[in-house]
Amino acid sequence: MWPQVALAPPVLHGEWLTELAAEFDLAWASGWGLQANDLVAPILGVDVLPFVPMPQPFVPMPQIPFPPHEKVPAIDASVGSRSAAWIDVVVPEARAWTSNRRAPTKLVNTDHTRGLQRNHVDDLLAWAGTLNWNKRELRLPPRLVDTAAGSGGSR
To answer: How far is CA 151 from CA 13, 34, 69, 155, in A?
Structure first.
C-alpha cells in the first residue's frame, strides 16, 4: 500500500504542464505510476499521460517505493536516443546520466517542498526553442505504457 501523501499542488501546475505539452511529450516518471492519471491528473486538470515504468518497491523501506537513483535506468530506457527534459528532485546519478548523453538533455532540479515553478517552465520552453526538432514528428517509444485503456480515462 502506498503511503498517504498530502497533495495540494497549485492550480497553476496544470496550466504549466499544458503549456509544456505544446512543446514536449509529457509522461509521468514517478512512484505514482499509473495511479498518477487517476489521482493527480484530475487535480491538475491535465489529460491522461503515459508513464515510465519504475522499479519495484524498495522492500526494506516500504514507505519509499524505490531508491531514487533507480529512476535513471527507467528514464534512459524510455527516452532512448531522443532529446529529453527531466523535471525532478535531482540525484547525482541523474546528473551523470545527463552529462553522458549524446542527445540534448535538460535536467530541471526542483525543490521537493515547492515543486514545479514558473521559472522552470520558462527555462524549459526557452530550451525547447533552441532545439532543431518538431514535436509533431515525435512519437512516444513503445516502452512508455499507453494508459488510455488502463486507467479508465481517454486522451
So the answer is: 21, 7, 27, 11
